[in-house]
Amino acid sequence: MKRMMIANLIAWISTAALLVSGCANKNNEPAAAGQGGAQEQQGGATEPVSPVHVGDPDQWPKSVRKSPDGAVTYTRAEMSMAEKEYWKRTVANRATQLGIIPVDPRHNTSLFRIKQKDLAGVAFIAPFIYAYSATEGARLAPFKREDGLVELNFSAVMVDGSRQRINGPDDRKPVFINGNNLIQDYELMKAKLGEQGYGQVAVLHGCPRKVTLHLNGEEFDATPSYMVKSEYCFHNRPFPVMLRLPLEKARYLLDEGLYTSTAALSVNYEVQVPFVILNASIRLDRSQVYKQLQTGLGARIAWLQADARLRLREIIESMSMSVDIEGDRNQYVDSLIAQAMNVFFKPFQPSGSELPECRKMICLQLSNEKNTEETHLEAKWNEVSTSLASQMVSSHTILQPTQDKAVSVGDVNNSADCLKPSGAACRKGVDNTYSKEIALGLTVLEGDLLEIKPGYVQIEKREFNIATKERKSQVFCLRHECFDRGSTNRAVGCHVDPARNPPNVQFRCVAGEERGVDITTYSSSEPRFERVEDPFAMKTDFLKGLRLKFSWVDNSPNGTGETVSQSCALGVFHTGYDGQSIKVRIENRAGCIPFKNYERQTVWLSLVNDIRNEVTYKGGRLVRRIHTGNIEEAPYEATYAPYVEFGGSVSIRGYGLNSKKEGVVIN
User: Fold this and answer.
1) Could you give the strand order of the β-sheet that contains 546-553, starting from the edge strand earlier in sequence?
2) What is the CB neighbour count within 10 angstroms for residue 476?
3) Cross-strand bridge partners of residue 657
4) C-alpha to C-alpha distance for 186 and 195, rounded to whole angstroms
5) Where does residue 298 fall: left (phi above 0), alpha (psi -120 to 50 degrees), or beta otherwise?
6) Which long-range contacts link 104-108 to residues 24+ away (Cβ below 8 Å)?
7) 614, exposed or middle or buried, with CB in 10 Å at 0-12, 13-18, 19+?
8) What is the pLDDT of residue 1?
């Protein structure tokens, strides 16, 4: 049994309500209502409700203790142990008979009533299960055990739907609850409940008892061992969940179950009832407190408020030590200080230059002028026990994937302009190699299913074998004859040397041929880019040309400690297609072994775009002798891989999860 200590009967009984998380924490502090600091609320907080009073407190064994001078009186009335056990076994079960309160689905919550007279006007919100990756934004990390099962660890939390943000397990990094798990239009719901006679809304106490994974029609137990008998439970406080599944089931969960709404988590939640087991009070003689204040504060005109509070605490704690009081002093001291501050002090207004510090801070003046019939300062409190009942409610949530680790590749808005900064690597001429590596920022584990979604493909197009012809030639004279100048009459006695011919004789070529070369130059056009309308038409090109580059630090026993890498084509791995994406199972394959058998190996991934649509073309020149037909220079044939730009996204299936509320029912 865990007790919750409450500082004042009026103020603290209400805070022991079912709003708090199940029961007190280990420091006897109010749970949940005070945990998490300033947290965002959705539609207003639920309200506190008093615990059930069982039995007749007037019949409880009572003890009264007084200080030797009679200034302090401590009264304690506590339920007997036998009576406590009786009420835990009987009343708790009767008090937790639940009934459903109809509620508009728009409010996204489930409401119940407890069939017990003390709680007739209270509507109870049943906490429901919410699951998420162990750390916000972190990945699920399947671990293969020696027995062949795969272990998956994530977190779950029983939430009441009132908070958008709750504290994580370490009370530091917050966890954000998806909007589809929050109560909607809380104030409207509260108003409607008021019309039905429910003046308060509170959270139903309880402890989760069994956690079950429902996967495509099969059930797998995921209950933490400590949860089976625990009585110290909290809502809005995460707890770990560990699944142990056969390999094929774990892969189905991560690869398909999260994406097809065929994976769900359910929790059986055992209802708790808080009930009062002790009433206590302490009374201090007012005159004795005032005398000690006069002695402690002296004749000063005024005191800083903080100094006055400190002195009151010293006086009250000293007086209370004169009787044997169980429990923490804070449960009553703060209440007595508040009463004494109100009775014995009045505001001080400085004038002139006196007490300059009081111009900046609150100062008080000791006074006993307030007339009251009360001769004592009194604080009351109680202790509350919680009892688990046999009443169960069951909460269901649909597991779904998080998509925060999808990495974009390429420029989706690219207009095929190779002059963009991202196109610096585009070819400008006919070169012979091209490879583009894209760091994805993803760490991969053996067995991961990688999903590649092509968004677009643009291919460089050129017109090849453009022939430009040119002739370089001259006529070669085979035979000359002499003619009378200016006539066609042949002459005699002419000489091949024109200078030696008579003036009237001309040496002419009468038979010749053209000699030289014909030159054909082969070239290509400037590039243009064409977008492939159906990227999956290039599926074969993807498997051959897209490569996965695995990098890791060699931490093997004889390793160098340096980064090493290995590139493997997609086609090496098991692949699948669904018309929208290519799915690749990442694991060691023949010729591609990135996962080594040593500890602390972290493998990170890059995508290498080496898609090639190679074409053969002619280059150079064809030089042919005109008169002989001999080829003096021949063109060459070459292979060219045009630039292919690939864009899309790369993600790991089942990288992370969260959940969507399905419902809460009474078992």
Assistant:
1) 436-444, 603-609, 546-553, 563-569
2) 12
3) 401
4) 14
5) left
6) 104/189, 104/192, 106/184, 106/185, 107/183, 107/184, 107/185, 107/186, 107/188, 107/189, 108/161, 108/180, 108/181, 108/182, 108/183, 108/184, 108/661
7) exposed
8) 33
SS3 readout for 76-105: EEECCHHHHHHHHHCHHHHHCCEEEECCCH
The one-letter amino acid code at 448 reads: D
87: left (phi over 0), alpha (psi -120 to 50) or beta: alpha
Nearest one of 348, 344, 374 to 359, comparing CA atoms: 348
The answer to whether the beta carbons of residues 115 and 98 sit under 8 Å apart is yes
Contact 611, 644 (CB under 8 A): yes
Q: What is the pLDDT of residues 580-597, one digit of tens each?
A: 889 999 999 999 999 987
**Cα-based distances in Å from 488 to 88, 478, 500, 509, 578:** 144, 19, 20, 13, 89
Coil/strand/helix, residue 106:
helix
Q: Which residues contact 8 (CB under 8 A, 6 or more apart)?
A: 332, 335, 379, 380, 381
Q: Are 205 and 237 in contact (CB under 8 A)?
A: no
SS (H, E, C) 173-204: CEEECCHHHCCCCHHHHHHHHHHCCCCEEEEC
Alpha-carbon distance of 544 to 539, in angstroms, equals: 9
What is the residue-wise DSSP string for 585-596?
Answer: E---BTTB----
H or E stretch covering 248: helix 247-252
Range with the lowest mean pLDDT among 255-269, 587-601, 614-628?
Answer: 587-601
> For 411-446, how does the pLDDT look when each residue is reduced to its tens digit (9 = 90+)?
644 444 443 433 333 433 333 334 578 888 888 989
Q: Say which DSSP state 299 is in.
A: T
CB 587 within 8 A of CB 485: no
Distance separating alpha carbons of residues 154 and 240, to the nearest angstrom:
6
Q: Looking at beta carbons, which pairs linking 171-175 to residues 24 or more positions away fall under 8 Å?
A: 171/35, 171/36, 173/135, 173/136, 174/39, 174/136, 175/132, 175/136, 175/238
Q: What is the pLDDT of residue 80?
A: 81
Q: How far is CA 331 from CA 4, 9, 70, 160, 288, in A?
A: 10, 10, 22, 28, 21
Helix-then-strand count for the chain, H and E: 9, 36
Report phi then psi at 289, rounded to 5: -65, -45
Task: Please give the structure tokens belonging to residue 549.
Answer: 């580059």
Average pLDDT over residues 265-289: 87
Of 397, 330, 349, nearest to 126 by C-alpha is 397
**Alpha-carbon gap, residue 53 to 663, rounded angstroms:** 31
Cα separation, 16 vs 236, whole angstroms: 16
CA 567 vs CA 48, 261, 548: distances in Å:
61, 35, 5
Taking the CB of residue 550, how many other CB atoms lie within 10 A of it? 19
Backbone phi, psi, residue 665, to 5°: -135, 160
- What is the band of 251 on the pLDDT scale with cuts at 50, 70, 90? very high
Q: Which two tokens stand for residue 555?
A: 């931490």
DSSP 8-state code for residue 117: G
Chain centroid, CA 84 distance in Å: 45
Contact between 519 and 569 under an 8 Å Cβ cutoff? The reply is no
